[in-house]
Amino acid sequence: MTDTPEPAVAWHVATPGVLVVTLQRPRANALGLPIIEGLTEALDSASARGDIKVVIVSSSLPGFFAAGADIKHMATVDATSFTAYGDALRGVLDRLAGDTWIAIAAIDGLALGGGLELAMACHLRVAGNGARLGLPEVSLGLIPGAGGTQRLPRLVGRGRALGMMLTARQVPADEALTMGLVDRLVPEGTALEAALQLADTLLEMSLPAQSAVIRCVDAAFDTSLEDGFRFEVAQEQRLFEEGEAKEGITAFLEKRPPKFS
Ligand SMILES: CCCCCCCCCCCCC[C@H](O)CC(=O)SCCNC(=O)CCNC(=O)[C@H](O)C(C)(C)COP(=O)(O)OP(=O)(O)OC[C@H]1O[C@@H](n2cnc3c(N)ncnc32)[C@H](O)[C@@H]1OP(=O)(O)O
Q: What span is annotated as the signal peptide, if there is one (predicted)?
């Protein structure tokens, strides 16, 4: 009787409103089809539930968050499949990066190539002290093709992004914190625990308002300052009229915690 292999991705509701997605594809969480399909199913499950406010992406493999796109598989595909697989990977990362939820990457171990691109598609990143982050694609004759050339400079600035991508170097977690590539640095092996604590804080806030912040911040990189201000005002107005602002304001005046949906 052959044991059925463990799925490449597992997920569970850790606490109400918080979905933990666990990458568990030996030996390095290479982002092949099993992980792309697993991530897609996990996000489909979160969407279907309708009550998920925070998605945490973590790894159960010691020493690895994810080592990037599956190079072994890459060696076997033609250009058409390469593009198709790339589109599939970019598609699931774009879903993660959307405003439906707040996504946190809990990084212990190596986050390289597509693995770091996966982490950068998340809104926030928590890294354990031993983590190392890099985009080594130029060492393969490629570029970070799952959003890395666009998301990294937006996080750390042009100079640091070029320095990382042109040299393929791995950045230790403490340096990544000073660069703004990670948001919290925690003891090695505790990134998931810290991400769950961060999720508790996020859950106290209004998700419609947080989603509007995400839309405004993303707009800031794609529009003029003047148009960005206009977009911000429109979001603020909509939240005041239709959102949870009345509950938030009332709760403050009544000196009680707000009851957001
Ligand atoms: C559906 C997708 C299919 C893929 C084809 C199409 C892809 C389309 C992509 C388009 C979008 C681009 C996305 C992205 O930008 C591109 C990339 O991510 S390219 C890959 C970038 N990552 C790397 O270059 C890291 C490669 N790995 C390493 O440098 C080292 O393995 C390590 C991570 C530094 C660890 O080193 P060690 O501790 O010495 O361990 P090993 O090297 O022995 O590795 C252990 C074991 O894991 C295997 N492995 C490691 N990384 C990968 C990987 N990225 N893909 C596949 N397999 C990997 C390694 O081969 C070892 O396996 P074993 O030899 O024991 O069988």
A: none
